[in-house]
Each structure stands twice: as C-alpha cells, then as structure tokens.
Specification:
The protein is mainly alpha-helical. The protein is elongated, with a radius of gyration of 25 Å. The protein has helices at 64-67, 76-84, 111-130, 135-148, 189-203, 209-221, 228-247, 252-276, 282-301, 309-320, 323-334, 338-367, 384-401, 409-428, 433-455, 460-464, 473-484, 488-519, 531-534, and strands at residues 21-26, 29-34, 68-69, 72-73, 100-101, 104-105, 154-159, 162-167, 176-181. The chain has a three-stranded antiparallel beta sheet with strand order 7-8-9, covered by helices on one side.
Amino acid sequence: MPEHEQSGTPAGAEGPAGREDREHSAGTGKGRVPAQGRYGGVPEADPAATPAALGPDTGPAGAENGGTDPCGVVPWPDRMLPLLRTPTTARPLVGDCGGDRDGVRADGPEPAVVAAALDLALLVGELMLACGEAAEDVEAAMFAVAWTYRVRPCDPQVTFTRVAISHQPGPGEPPVTAERSVRHPTGDCARLAALFRLVTDITAGGLGVDAAHRRLRAVHRDCRRYPAWLLVLSSGLLAGTATLLVGGRADARAWLVFVSAVVAAVTGDRLAALVGRHDLPEFYRVASAATPAAAVGILLSFNQLHLRGSVVVTGGLYAFLPGWPMVAAVQDGLAGFYLTAAARLLEALYLVAGVVVGVMSVLYVGVNNGADLAAQSVPSSSNPPLQLAAALLLALSFAVLLNTEPGALPGVVLNSGAGWATYGVLVHAGGEPVMATGLAAVLVGLSGRLMARYRGTSALPFVTAALGPLLPGSVLYFGLIAFVRGEPEAGVRGIGHAAAMAMALAIGVNLGREVARLSLPVPGAGRFAPAARRSAGRHRR
C-alpha cells in the first residue's frame, strides 16, 4: 500500500535541516517533497491556505467561524471526542464531509496543503505524547487539526511511543500515511498548555498552515518557566513536605526530619542527574535517586533523639513514585487504548521497581545492623491543619517540577486542597482509605477538567500535581519494610493495598473527567456521532 512515512527523532531534539523527506506514492510512480526541518519547511504551494479559505464548513463541529454556537466557542476536545469515539466504520465518509459530490472532490485542499496539514497534525501529536498527555486526547488533537484543514476522512492512531495518521483523499485514490516515534516522554505542562492553545487557534479558523508551523516551532524551542535551581529546590520541598504530611507533627524533631528529607531529596536529584548524563536507562536513574533518602533515614534511626527515619524514607517515596504514569495507564485502558495502557503500566511498574530496589538495598543493610525503622500503615491525623498546609505545598512543588505555567498554580493548589480535605474527612469519619482515595480522586478529576475547560487547556496540569498528596507512599513503605523484616505476608498485603489505592486514584480521576464532560453538554458536538453509533464503542489498540 502506498505510504507516506517519516521517522521521528527523540522528543526535545531537532534534526538538521533536510534530514527528513516526505514520500508520496501514487500508483507506481513516486515523488518527493523536500522538508526543510523537523518543525518547519512546509510546502509553499498555498501559503494563504487557512481554514476559512477552504470553504464554509471549516470547523470540526461543522459550523462557521471555527465551530461556534450560540452559547460561545465550543472547546475542540468536546467536539472531537464524540466523533473520535465513533467506530471507524460508522464515521462519515468523504462524501459526507462537505465539499464532495458523488465521491468526487469538488473543492478540497491542494495536495501540498494536505501534506502540510498532515505533517502539522503529526507534529502536534508527537509533542503532546512526549509531554505526557493521554492517548485519547492526543488523537483528538490530531483529529481536530486535520479535520479543520479539511483533510477528511483521516484516522489518527497513537501508541505508547508512536503516533501516526492516515488519509485517503477519495474513493480509488492512494492513501497517505505519516508516522513518528516518540522517545523519552516526560511531563511538561507548560508546553502542553501551549499546544492546546495552538490547536484552539487552529480550530477557530483563522490560522494558516504555515503560521501554525511557525507557532509550533516556537512552542518546541522554549517553554521553560522556572530556573534550574528552583526545580532542584522544589524536589527537596516535595520530599520535606511529605514528611510533615505523613508525620503530622510540627515540633523541633519534625523540622529536623523535614530538613533531612530536603537534603536527601536534593542529593538524590543530583545523583540522578549524574546517572542520566551517562545515558543509562531510567530504571537506574530512579534507583539511584531513591537511595539517599533511605540512607538518611537509617542514619537518623541511630540516635537518642527518637527521630523517625521511616518518615524520611516515606518522603523520598513520594518524590519518586510515578503517580501520573499509573493514572495515565488506567485512563488509556478505560478509553480503549489497551496496548498503550499495557505499555504505560509496564513502564510505571519498572519505575516502581527501580524505587523499590534503591530503597530496599539500603534498608536491608540498615535493618540487619539494628536500625529502628518503625512503619506506619496510613498517614497520621494528629494535626489536620498542618497536614493540609503540607499537602498544598507538596502539590505546589510537584507542579513546579512538572513545569506548570505560573497562572495555573493557584488552580492546582486549590484542587489539591479540595482532594486532600475530602480524603481526610472521609478517613476521619471511619471510611476505608481506598474508598476515600477514590472519591477524592473523582473530585480532583472533575474540578481539574472544569478548570481546564475554563482556561482552554489540558486537564493534566490541574490533576497530576493535585494527586501528589494522595499517592500511596506511606502504604508502599509499609509493605517494603515488612519484606525487609522477613514478613512476606504483611509485605504482600502492603503492596496490594498500595496498588489498590493507585487503581482507585486512576479510576477516580477518569470518572471525574467523564462526569465533567457529560455535565456540560455541547451543542452540535455529536453531529457526526449519533447515539446509536456511540454505543458501539471505539476501536481497540
């Protein structure tokens, strides 16, 4: 089958000009359209080609002026998800998309514009996936870009490390397929927010293909919001505030433990950076980063001040647990992306294994030499006001580490406080911690989605950091220390409890997201996805 294919380079590194070529096959002949750079160099065949210039049916919702309605501008995710969740066989064909009569393209875009639009959609999807966005939202963004420029029908596909998009111009015409690889994905909320704004401007109908490529190059070049020293400090504050969250105390000993956790986390961060400079796999970087917290915890246990070294170790676990990858894995699974969900879950398990190996290798030595590392199965509730303040500061530190835009930080802190307060009230009332975690996650997912809709950006910045205080760091430590002490049954229970809390977090966030989407009906969003079709579900991958 004729194919248009591109081989991607690692996210965050631009290839030299002219490295990639776009190949278009038609019948037995082939032609080349040169590409002048990874995020630029679009064809000059139609530089003024904007959605508005391509006909009245320009918006993904099929409305004029970028798909607006009497209630205002409809966000593109709400317009794309109903169509994206419609099975491929039930989606509108070329003749149903406007501009085609009897299967013949009457006023569709030129081939050069189609190639540039497909390349733009592919690059947007590549960067979104590299920033940690869920697979379904990445597909929705690619779908929105292609649909806006009337590249219809098209079929975006996202897996764990690969994005692709296919388009068949018309019946009997050769299809065009483009794909890219995504390496070393990492959380970058500022770049993700900029990408969402770019897709919003594209779907509004006033941004040409060339202008969109220039905007994309600007997003790719520089989205750093915080200096390096602040990121290192935030890593230490995250671990330090976790000790206050778990310990629930504010005496002199607690503040000494706080300072010790900060020093251990900063040391772990620098050690991880040193390991990363040698291009070792992520597993070794995480394992090395987790060892200083365990070592400091053991050193604190050899004293007459009765300092709780276990709290330092627990704070280190909060700093290095892969919270969002676990949530994203379950979210992708619930959305029908089973292969992507399995790959993300396996990645999260490997990262957790790295943390476990780094911590247990040190704890084993300490426990066998008389270290007193008392374990706590759940966070203490002796000082709720202090713990609430610690939860807010933990979420703020987490948000800075994820490069969240400064304007979104108040929303992150507010969402985190609401989630932790909900969890604390339910547990204090005698509720099961797993159930309390799930209900708190529903609130976090719901409010995060609403905040994202208000700001016109992704929900990832408002949800990821807000989940930080709810991560099962202390429960996981309880299971690890039981294994070290030779109590495998208690260890299995602890690990199982931590896994149940992580699953409750993931399902709760996804449920809150869907409740927010259903509670805000979008006029015209289901134009191409009637109720009878939606019940069939989406295609699996």
